[in-house]
Amino acid sequence: MAYSLDLREKVVLYVESGCTRISASKVFGIGERTVRRWVSRYRSTGNIAPLPHGGGFPSKIQSSVFKQHMGDNPDKTLKELGEFFGVSHEGIAYNLRKHGYVHKKNSTLRRKKRRGSSRILVGN
């Protein structure tokens, strides 16, 4: 989160009035490197406003499509969902959390198969 413009102005004016950057960082409780960047930018451009955020990467999965598919296919595994959307299972897990879904690590069918196979092994 960016510092307020008001704080930036106070820090720069404090340093421009003759105080050191180290004392400014102690007085205002911010890092010395941050003070150096603000003062340097102020001296070179005259501006101390925060720079725009880089943005990150757009999602490969549209929210509306994801919600619709989850409503139609609630029992799909992460791997199956990943293959459908063309992303990794980690990407699916992220989108599940993002949209408020939870997933079971083991499906009921897999647990039944495991139980059934162990009974066969014990019976032999």
Give your account of this protein's structure.
This protein is mostly helical and 124 residues long. It has 2 domains: 5-45; 58-107. Helix content is 63%, strand content 0%. It is built from 7 helices and no strands. It has helices at 5-16, 21-28, 32-45, 63-72, 78-85, 89-98, 108-123. α1 packs antiparallel against α2 (21-28) and α5 (78-85) packs across α6 (89-98). The radius of gyration is 27 Å and the shape is elongated. Residues 117-124 have low confidence and may be disordered.
CA radius of gyration: 27 Å
The overall number of domains is 2
Distance between the termini: 64 Å
Report the structural category.
mainly alpha
Global geometry = elongated
What is the N-to-C order of secondary-structure elements (H for helix, E for strand)? HHHHHHH
Query: Got a strand count?
Result: 0
In short:
By secondary structure, this protein is an all-alpha fold. The chain has helices at residues 5-16, 21-28, 32-45, 63-72, 78-85, 89-98, 108-123. It has seven helices and no strands.
Topology of helices and strands:
Layout: H1 5-16, H2 21-28, H3 32-45, H4 63-72, H5 78-85, H6 89-98, H7 108-123
Helix pairs in contact: 1-2, 1-3, 2-3, 5-6
Keywords:
single chain, 124 residues, mainly alpha, 2 domains, 0% strand, disordered C terminus
